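Before drawing any conclusions, I looked closely at one protein's amino acid sequence and its backbone structure tokens, quoted below without any editing.
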Amino acid sequence: MPTMIFVNLPVKDLGTSTAFYEALGYQRNPQFSDENASSIVISEHIHVMLLTEKFFSTFTKKAIADAGTTTESILCISAESREAVDVLADKALAAGGSFSNEPMDEGFMYGRSFQDPDGHLWEVMWMDPAAAQGHES
């Protein structure tokens, strides 16, 4: 079985958050969803688990960060093209997400970012593999 990633995010309103990710074109997996959680399938190997804050708190002894004011991580997903980056970022903004940072354009690499309704930071990135191989930092 290939390695998979399940990103667990605390959310204030499960319905609003679920609708946001569905508006981006992702599917909710009902098998792992209930009144406490929505399992959102980003790809075959990437899933986002939207957990109500109350349910999320049962998995940790730490305080839950308020993603609207604190950043713990920036989640980045790849896109197949520059255009696909723009499509997903525009969908996010239209679906209730908010602007995060100016687009990043390095020529061989292009990305945009947004915040979901709870303030979780996301980046969408495209990289030209041929150009990236010859790129030195």
Q: What stands out?
A: The chain has a mean pLDDT of 94. The two ends are 34 Å apart (CA to CA).
